[in-house]
Amino acid sequence: MFVVSLTYVVELSEVEPHLAAHVEFLERHYARGHFVASGRKVPRTGGIILARVASREQLDAILAEDPFQQAGVAEYQITEFLATKVAPGFESIKDSLQ
Questions:
Q1: CB 3.0–4.6 Å: which of 36, 38, 83, 90 could bond 49 by disulfide?
Q2: The whole model's pTM is what?
Q3: Cα–Cα distance for residue pair 95/18, rounded to 1 Å
């Protein structure tokens, strides 16, 4: 599991033109099962994506498709973790220790 923290590196007015394409990117990867949660930071300085993919390399390839990255309006900080404990109802995202 990966936590992707996006931080805008330009004014919000420069981010807005890419928002619709970014949402389409998110929807495509939700449909493929890659993303399990996402949303805006408060205050609106970027966003968070919770991604469940096989490897960091796969995640990097996915993020390279993000219109925000392609336009250079956001930077990404990525943290990998094992979700070994989850709340009821979130069992599908639980990782097993191997």
A1: 38
A2: 0.92
A3: 33
